[in-house]
Records
---
Amino acid sequence: MTIRIINRSGNPLPKYETPGSAGMDLRASIDAPVTLAPLERALIPTGLFIQLPQGYEAQIRARSGLAIKRGLTMLNSPGTIDSDYRGEIKCIVVNLSNEFQTIEPGERIAQMIIARYEQIAWEEVNALEETGRSSGGFGSTGFV
């Protein structure tokens, strides 16, 4: 699949780092470092604008390395970029560590996954088919 993209960031286009990668890293398109205090959040621009085909979304997710090493993650995760959105992709970054964390210009801050979706139609009914689990809640399969 080919997706149209505008890159106003000065950073390279997102790419798959390995043949098995599901996500592509997004980079901060900022002129100066942004420092986040513990529990502080910021909207970090990427400089990227995309045109997705209908039936697809871009999911914005945390990078596991940033999360474990520095406590930086994404709020509203995964964030959804709808197929009819044409604005700049921006990432809501939060610092969950106990230390100040600085995001540098061009730093890889998130990952983007392109995923197919379907829109549905509701069918209101009075009952649902029973299953072995039925209404068993969290942990009902023996895993907590």
---
Amino acid sequence: MGEWSAQDTDDGDFERFFKKLPEYEQAVLEAAVTHVLERLGIDICTTEWGKSLGGGLYEFRVRRSLTAILRAYGTSDSFITVDAGRQVLLRVFCTFYGAKVILLLGGYDKRRDASSKRQQREIQRARKRLARWRSRPIAEH
């Protein structure tokens, strides 16, 4: 859909995070990645959706409902569920590289644990994944 292409790391951490989310949160996150992150890429940092954490690590902030995302980002898909108006509070860590590729490094549900300690722990995990990915031979990127 967008100009950018999102992908998981080889360790599959983002995929594990995604699969553990309840169905509604999965739908919101999928819509946000497809309609916002892949469309805007690194420009998320000029909006409420993103923040640079330094060292090439970025935070994608998902804090809207499925209905709000689909209405604001121009899709005619009609996902009508009982909770379609319920906001979520998800964080996804990523980096941007190459020919408009977004590497998804993991994430967490901030609504379940909004503590600063949890946030810092998740950022450190994402930094370690990013360092591991960067240490691989370039041909593997």
---
Amino acid sequence: MSRQRAPAAAQGGPVGTDLLDAGFEAFDQLATLVAIAEPAGRCLFANATLENAVGMSRRALVRGSVLDWLADPAPLRDTLLMVARNDVASGRFDALLKRLPGASASGGDLPVHVIVSQMDRPGNVLVEMIEIEQQTRLDREERVNELAQANKELVRNLAHEIKNPLGGIRGAAQLLAMEIDSRELTEYTQVIIHEADRLQVLVDRLLAPHRRAHVVGDVNIHEVCERVRTLVLAEYPRGLVVERDYDTSIPEFRGDREQLIQAVLNIAHNATQALTERIAAADARLILRTRIARQATLARQRFRLALELHIQDNGPGVPEALRDRIFHPLVSGREGGSGLGLTLAQTFVQQHQGTIECDSVPGRTVFKLLIPLP
């Protein structure tokens, strides 16, 4: 579109479409909520992220006023006028963005940080809203990724340091067993050999993600879920119901099928171990749910579509003391657990540019896997 069409838009034309034609479609790629408005509040453009957040179409949004979107419109009204009069170059404040019922699974008004700025286009003001919850989540995700990377290097280096002397200990114990005649002393050497073998298995599991090549192919997430479901039900044929809630429209994507099976299976195994009492009472429930997430931000990168896989159980929940550490290596809430299942799951999902989140309360624990889609 040429700039000559802007006045027609101001007189009531198809404003949102005109501005899209003008090149503002780039705003649709942003993770933040963006609108262009007149100083009086009339909406001229809204990006796709804003549409998704409030649960209204762009066509509906551009027919109204940006002032109607906030629970308290007064700060926005004042800031729009100050920016338009050039009293300030930009203004910032926190607000509550109103959302239609069903616009978000969490429901209710959305806390946002609002930034109102001047534009090169005369009579237009840029309104940008950043989800406070999203910013907190992104910061937490970045910290988790940095910690995971540090833990990965630490574990890998530690495993290599343990591996060589462990082989020497086992070999020495075998030689010693051949030299002694005492049955009691032979039993001691067998204990050393057995424990060395057990530690060797642990070291191999620590090194597993770094040894095996990333085998990429077309992955159907529902084939992955069905494989996991079959394995879980084979182990727990009674007392456990595994429900399927699939969005069959989810496309295939490029990934390592075996790694994803292992990641989902590790999380499912964690769930079944937490469900021991409910399995005994025959009311244990595990749900595998797939959905498409739109305009997802993963590792500060925006993706138009992402796979959202929920693994939900009705167990007692993750102990509060472990919630911030459940993905750390060698941390387990179960006696005798290795504490590697969730660590490996996180590693495999991260190798697909994805993340794992956990939301847990007594009676409902959900592990959510997010993986970008093509």
